[in-house]
Amino acid sequence: MQTVNKKDIPEVMTVEVEKLSNLGYGIAKVDGYVIFVEGACPGDTVKIRLGKKNKSYANAKVLEIVKPSPHRVEPFCPMQKVCGACQLQFIDYDSQLKLKKQIVEDTMKSIFGGEVEVRDVIPSPKNREYRHKIQYPVGETRDSKRILAGYYKTGSHELVNIKYCPIQPEYCDRIIEFIRQSAQECGISGYNEKKHAGDLRHVVIRTSNYSKKSLVILVVNSTRAFDKLKKLAHRIFTELDNVSGVGVNFNSKKTNIIMGETTEILEGEGFIEEKLCDKVFKVGAQTFFQVNPESANNIFNYVKEYIRSSFESPLVLDAYAGITTFGICLSDIAKKVVSVEEVKASVDLASRVIKENGITNVELHNMDAGKFFEKELNTKGRKFDVTVLDPPRKGCTQESLDYALKLTKSKIIYVSCNPATLARDLKYLVEKGARVEFIQPFDMFPHTYHVEDVAVIKLD
């Protein structure tokens, strides 16, 4: 097929949407020229307006839905079109799952190249009120100085004041509304990003599906907890039943990173408790933990049952461990679990959980995973039956993958929240002689384009 010259593509036209991109945009093609259409569903016929035309693709917005896809539905949230959090809420849930499988398959083919079995996506047990970590930017109105808290519009830093969000527990809406009103009454200002001025930058809530309790963190443009902030924290803790602790995080830098390095607990406990795999974990303000506990429980039990059926009393390495959720869940079926995590606060919480649960076969290491791999290889020389890799979104370094190959006897289980970096790392492992058995996707974030994957890699 001859590719059309981008100059010949009209600014306004009608197209049919073929599939979904890995970032949730509808994909249409005009003689080989790719158009990414925001807010479009596969099967839609839409009238669009193109933005800037690049050499091989352009982005576009929908002007009119000429013929809707049979998979298009009315969003259940009235803010869906202005809030950037739920990109796919206008697509029925069963179709979302199929599209996420297609995203993983397409990503594997484009980066990995080879044939990889991608299984059907395991759905989230709940697709409303599932999100148990909330991070709301905070601002204020120009004249009345009324506090605003919500999400940014897609592709912008324009704050949408969210009063009701159906993907988070209902009591979180009440907490946010209480903070909006009380912050202003306490004389606390909202943050102005352009001027780098104002007190309250973000409100972060960690809430438990197990206990229904919440830890509230006030992220402030300051280096100390001032009196008005302490007054607000006291009101939140004493007047809201669901709040078990209130802390302040100090972030006075001109940055788009949400939280600074230091958190001080002003009222109550510095953690919430969450239950996974019949064990109770402690989740702190800055410790990594999955935001959808019920879907996370599916993942942990899936990995546990796979290892149980494949090994008898294995030696397991849990890398990028966070609060050692995988390691603790796997301790029931493992001879020993060696856990590696570089964030000390997470290791401290894991240590408490291990002691409280009477677990004796989990060995904790507070250090960078790559450095641990090198030390382990050069000193103890242990070989693990199974290595669980659960890295951040950017994936693993090639050095870490090399060490994992050297340290593992049989299988690597790679848990990823980013299909692109997973495909990149799988390609590298295969080039080094490994074999991908299959990929099992899970829906951790319903109504978004995000998908969690568990890849099982065999070392021959």
Describe what this molecule looks like in 3D.
By secondary structure, the chain is α/β, with parallel strands linked by helices. The protein has helices at 93-112, 170-185, 227-239, 293-310, 325-330, 344-356, 369-378, 398-407, 419-431, and strands spanning 12-16, 19-20, 26-30, 33-38, 45-53, 57-67, 133-140, 147-152, 159-161, 200-207, 214-220, 243-250, 262-268, 271-276, 279-284, 315-319, 336-341, 362-366, 384-389, 408-416, 434-442, 452-459. The relative contact order is 0.10. The strands form 4 sheets. A 7-stranded mixed β-sheet has the order 9-8-7-10-11-12-13. A 7-stranded mixed β-sheet has the order 18-17-16-19-20-22-21, sandwiched between helices. The protein has 3 domains: 6-72, OB fold (Dihydrolipoamide Acetyltransferase, E2P) (Beta Barrel); 98-125 and 292-459, Vaccinia Virus protein VP39 (Rossmann fold), CATH 3.40.50.150; 133-276, OB fold (Dihydrolipoamide Acetyltransferase, E2P) (Beta Barrel). The mean pLDDT is 94.
Topology:
Blueprint (H helix, E strand, L loop, with lengths): L11 E5 L2 E2 L5 E5 L2 E6 L6 E9 L3 E11 L25 H20 L20 E8 L6 E6 L6 E3 L8 H16 L14 E8 L6 E7 L6 H13 L3 E8 L11 E7 L2 E6 L2 E6 L8 H18 L4 E5 L5 H6 L5 E6 L2 H13 L5 E5 L2 H10 L5 E6 L8 H10 E9 L2 H13 L2 E9 L9 E8 L1
Parallel strand pairs: 4-6, 11-12, 16-17, 16-19, 17-18, 19-20
Antiparallel strand pairs: 1-5, 2-3, 3-4, 5-6, 7-8, 7-10, 8-9, 10-11, 12-13, 14-15, 20-22, 21-22
